[in-house]
Design a protein that fits this description.
Blueprint (H helix, E strand, L loop, with lengths): L12 H23 L4 H19 L1 H9 L6 H10 L1 H5 L2 H17 L1 E4 L7 H15 L12 E5 L17 E3 L5 E4 H9 L7 H12 L13 H19 L15 H14 L1 H7 L1 H11 L11
Parallel strand pairs: 1-2, 2-4
Antiparallel strand pairs: 3-4
Helix pairs in contact: 1-2, 4-7, 6-7, 7-9, 9-11, 10-13, 11-12, 12-13
The chain binds zinc ion.
Zinc ion (ZN) binds next to α9 and α11.
Length: about 300
């Protein structure tokens, strides 16, 4: 395993420990059952074989990942990241390799498809994966849930999922359902990296928020020590946004509720880190602590 490229980190230790424990228990049970009915020496070999097979089945996702990471990252994918994703450009060489691995793994494990059978281009698939890789870059043990479908609409849509250019919804995450992106808006978010709006980062931030069971602006993994200042800042800034006092930092949509505040703040944090750091160092610092990364100068971050 190449430690320079960080492949090992992609199998969380907790997963290995849990699966080894399960395998050990099954192997012992298999040995006890087989030994009671046949030759104990044969029982040793057969139970070990059963244990190995069971372990491979449990680790199937990671076995596939292992081989996926040995497939060279396509040059045309790299060109798209280079030309469209400012966060990728800010990484050093080692960081870019790890980002590419995260993109590959995401694309391998997630189900991305177009509404009503529409084709989803490689560029759009990469921009979705890049959004996830950006948010997860400083948290290498974080695994994106892979039970959600990712649905791509060609333009904006409404609550009835009618699709039209002038309809207002550009992305959506359901608590239990799919993640939805407007293709136009996703592309625009990566064309205007100097602006704060990026639907890819926004919707993936909602996924982080909902991963602990509720859309309350408190993302998964935020420990209780960090929660208190986060809740205080969030409440304060939402009030300021609603009074129009935060416009140079956060767009008005951040004032809708806590979930939208977190998603909008995440967009600004990754899209315009220098601006956010200068305009609201306290908010910047809390996001930096949570994402374990300085998006101004991410380097490798691991
Ligand atoms: Zn939102």
């Amino acid at each position: 395993m190449d430690r320079k490229t960080g492949c090992m980190k992609k199998i969380p230790r907790t997963v290995i420990t849990a699966n080894l424990t399960l395998t050990g228990v099954l192997t012992l049970i298999a040995f006890a059952v087989i030994a009671s009915r046949s030759n104990p020496v044969a029982a040793v070999f057969i139970s070990i074989a059963i244990g190995c097979l069971f372990f491979i089945v449990l680790m199937e996702k990671y076995v596939r990942r292992f081989f996926r990471l040995r497939t060279p990252f396509p040059d045309d994918w790299r060109e798209i990241l280079q030309s469209r994703v400012s966060f990728y450009r800010r990484l050093d060489q080692k960081g870019r390799i790890r980002f590419e691995q995260d993109v590959s793994i995401f694309l391998d494990q997630q189900h991305i498809y177009g509404v009503q059978g529409r084709h989803v281009s490689e560029e759009i698939r990469l921009l979705i994966a890049a959004s996830a890789a950006t948010l997860g870059f400083g948290m290498p043990d974080w695994e994106w849930p892979d039970l959600r479908d990712i649905l791509v609409f060609p333009t904006g849509f409404n609550e009835e999922y009618q699709v039209r250019d002038d309809l207002p919804i550009k992305g959506m995450v359901h608590q239990q359902g799919p993640i939805i992106f407007s293709e136009d808006e996703l592309r625009m978010g990566y064309l205007r990296s100097s602006q704060d709006s990026n639907v890819g980062l926004h919707e993936m931030a909602h996924v982080l928020d909902m991963a602990n069971g509720s859309a309350d602006g408190i993302p998964v993994g935020l420990n209780w020590v960090a929660s208190a200042p986060w809740i205080r800042i969030m409440a304060d800034r939402i009030q300021k946004v609603r009074k129009g006092k935060c416009r140079e930092v956060l767009r008005d949509y951040a004032g809708v509720d806590e979930a939208e505040f977190f998603a909008v703040a995440v967009e600004v944090f990754f899209q315009r880190p220098t601006h956010l750091k200068k305009a609201d160092p306290e908010l910047f610092s809390l996001l930096k602590d949570y994402f374990k990364i300085d998006p101004e100068n991410p380097g490798d971050a691991a």
